Amino acid sequence: MKLRPLKGIHHVSAITANAKKNYEFYTKTLGMRLVKKTINQDDPSVYHLFYADERGNPGTDLTFFEILNAGQTYQGTNSISATSLRVPDDESLQYWQNRFEQLGIEHDEISYHSGRATLAFRDFEGQRLVLVSDEDNVGVAGGRPWDRSPVPQEYGIVGLGPVKLTVSSFELTAKMLTDVLGFREARTYPSVISGGLDIQVFETGEGGTGAEVHLEERTDLPRESQGRGSVHHVAFRVEDGEELKHWAELLKELRIPNSGIVERYYFKSLYFREPNGILFELATDGPGFEVDEPFDHLGEHLALPPYFENQREQIEAMLEPLNTKQSPVNQK
């Protein structure tokens, strides 16, 4: 079955144990916009928060499930071991390094990997994040930072960059990426681990920072144990529901266990695990986050898909109140 290539990264979903502090960090420190405050549709007792560019364009969303009793993450293999966030250019990284120093955010020095300037840092729960410069990017376009962000637009985060997968068996995941999902091998770059194997870059669609998976094999680590500060899954972009249906048919044909198509209201999804156990999702580009909230008020109220509205009272009673009303900010 011949399918159109996946368009790039759609979103990355991670785990937090504290929605309030998470909201403060990703909106006030990183300057991303909360475009949707909703629930984990598989567990309506917890928040699902979506941070993105000004309107949550596909490829810009970093999302979090709040799991209050989430334990510590024990880092290891068969994991999404780093999430990249794109910034406009190399100059932006200098701004961010200064900002992190002023705010006391744990970070590394600006360095170069795979031909790009990068700045690795961690959030308050140890979430592994990397700012990556789009200065020489050719490929999937980024989004547009919100003009009410505390970060000046010219330095703002424009979307998701490459995701890094750390696995115990390179060949198994590589085969899934190329033979099933249609990624192509692009290049390699050296590991920062002494004696480590080169990291292989795979790309899809138009390529570029918004359409890459970086695959690393490590045989010296145990399997990662997920907790607060870890990544739950990565989603890749599919044009629409019709295309997603074709992907579901292909997975069935290949006998790859999967969820079937799941209605998420803001997009449709299809979930499955690659051979090392990392959860992948295919998600449609639309309809998007303005189906139930106007652009100017995205993320300000608890948004529930229509099929959860009759449970609103019970759901709100289970959730700790989280004030996400926006107020004017002074950029600095």
TrEMBL record:
<dbReference type="Pfam" id="PF00903">
    <property type="entry name" value="Glyoxalase"/>
</dbReference>
<dbReference type="InterPro" id="IPR029068">
    <property type="entry name" value="Glyas_Bleomycin-R_OHBP_Dase"/>
</dbReference>
<protein>
    <submittedName>
        <fullName>Glyoxalase family protein</fullName>
    </submittedName>
</protein>
<feature type="domain" description="VOC">
    <location>
        <begin position="8"/>
        <end position="134"/>
    </location>
</feature>
<feature type="domain" description="VOC">
    <location>
        <begin position="159"/>
        <end position="285"/>
    </location>
</feature>
<dbReference type="InterPro" id="IPR037523">
    <property type="entry name" value="VOC_core"/>
</dbReference>
<dbReference type="InterPro" id="IPR004360">
    <property type="entry name" value="Glyas_Fos-R_dOase_dom"/>
</dbReference>
<dbReference type="InterPro" id="IPR052537">
    <property type="entry name" value="Extradiol_RC_dioxygenase"/>
</dbReference>
